[in-house]
Amino acid sequence: MDAVSNLRHNYIPRAFINAPASVMVTGNTAGLLDFNATTDSYTPKVFLIVLGLSFIILTVAFRSIVIPVTSILMNLLSVGAAYGMIIMVFQKA
């Protein structure tokens, strides 16, 4: 992964500084880096949209603030627990 980062940020820009060419680095490692960057940029937005919509729907359905807030906290707790379990499994492997 460091090699792909070095290629993209150091070596290729220096080698093609005045060339009218676009250079792409491909392969499994580069694809994984691109996938991780895309996932990292969209995950907070998805969480905000899902939690915001669930808050609005539960507020309208139950006409209370306590139930949607409790629901959002429980969702965050369960997702955090699931991600914690996944991280622990991958760290042991």
Write a structural description.
By secondary structure, this protein is an all-alpha fold. The chain is built from three helices and no strands. It has helices spanning 2-15, 28-62, 66-92. It is elongated, with a radius of gyration of 21 Å. The mean pLDDT is 89.
Order of helices and strands: HHH
Topology, number of strands: 0
- Radius of gyration, in Å, reads 21 Å
Specify the helix fraction band: over 70%
Number of helices: 3
Largest sheet properties: none
Apparent shape: elongated
Beta-strand residue fraction: under 5%
User: Uncertain runs with pLDDT below 50, 5 residues or more?
Assistant: none
Compute the separation of the termini in Å: 19 Å
- Content-based structural category: mainly alpha
Mean pLDDT: 89
Task: Note the topology.
Elements: H1 2-15, H2 28-62, H3 66-92
Helix pairs in contact: 2-3
What would the keywords be for this entry?
93 residues, mainly alpha, single chain
Concise synopsis of the structure shown:
With 93 residues, the protein is mostly helical.
